[in-house]
Amino acid sequence: MSNPVPIRRLTPQGLPLAVVALLIGVTPALSQAPAPGRYSMQKTDTGIARLDTQTGEVTLCQEKAGDLVCRMAADERTAYDLELDLLEKRVETLEKAVKDAPEGFSPRLPTQEEIDQTMGIMDRMLRSFMGIARDFGREWQGEEKTPPAPDPDGDLRKT
Question: What are the extents of the domains in the chain?
Answer without folding.
Answer: 39-99, 112-145
